[in-house]
Design brief:
The complex is a heterodimer of chains A (84) and B (118). Helices cover 46% and strands 25% of the residues of chain A. Chain A is of the alpha+beta class. Chain A has a three-stranded antiparallel sheet with strand order 2-3-4. In chain A, strands 1-5 form a two-stranded antiparallel ribbon. In chain A, helix 1 crosses helix 2 and helix 2 packs across helix 3. The longest helix of chain A is centred in the last third of the chain and has 17 residues. The N and C termini of chain A lie close together (5 Å). In chain B, strands 1, 2, 3, 4, 5 and 6 form a six-stranded mixed sheet that branches. With 118 residues, chain B is an alpha/beta fold. Chain B contains three helices and six strands. Chain B is globular, with a radius of gyration of 15 Å. Classes of the chains: A alpha+beta (84), B alpha/beta (118).
């Protein structure tokens, strides 16, 4: 899965990711674990790699990483940001 | 209307990909008549009653005026006092018209980490 690159542009600013949704001309700010997951999705990834990225970066248990990934993917899917 | 569509109608391409290192200035390729039009657009926009987003409107208008120079519209962001501020400018003939004042261009690059070679 990956981000819908034709509809989104972004940039890293002070450890946050600023995203512009070109369809709606709306900006979003993503920080923390969301920024880590966005980074992975920008290059194309799998769900298991997303969970591993959170475990590796934050040292959290796999169950917590899985819940965080679920929440993030649900949000990005609802916004139409994902290409699967 | 989406920005890329509006920009295309006005004769300005929106660039999400190029290197953000162009120097600020006025291209030598712009002739006297075009420089006068650029100056007039800037003067009018300075007094525009709707202050929000004037950099984008100005860039689109300038892009229309200078469309024969194949201008590229770029949108950038930077942090200011914990807020994110956006800015728009034109790039053409090797310069960033009016400069980009430290704004980082929005794009689709994979995000570099510390230590990555660019």
């Amino acid at each position: 899965m990956r981000l819908r690159a034709d509809e989104l542009v972004w940039q890293v600013v002070d450890s946050e990711i600023v995203v512009l949704d070109l369809r709606k001309s709306v900006y979003f700010r993503i920080n923390g674990s969301g920024a880590t997951l966005w980074e992975q999705l920008a290059g194309g990834t799998t769900r298991s790699d997303l969970e591993a990225a959170l475990v590796d970066t934050y040292g959290i248990p796999p169950e917590e990483a899985s819940a965080d990934v679920d929440s993030f993917l649900e949000d990005t899917r609802q916004r139409g940001f994902l290409e699967e | 209307m989406r920005l890329p569509v509006l920009a295309r109608i006005l004769g300005v391409a929106v660039d999400w990909s190029s290197d953000p290192s162009l120097p600020p200035g006025m291209p030598n390729s712009i002739d006297v008549a075009e420089r006068l039009m650029v100056r007039n657009v800037v003067r009018v926009m300075r007094h525009w009653p709707f202050a929000e987003g004037t950099c984008l409107r100005q860039s689109l208008m300038l892009g229309r005026v200078l469309k024969d120079h194949n201008p590229l519209l770029r949108i950038g962001v930077q942090g200011q006092n914990r807020e994110i501020v956006a800015h728009a400018w034109l790039e053409l003939d090797g310069v960033a018209l009016g400069g980009r004042d430290g704004y980082l261009p929005l794009g689709r690059s994979e995000i570099a980490r510390d230590g990555d070679e660019l």
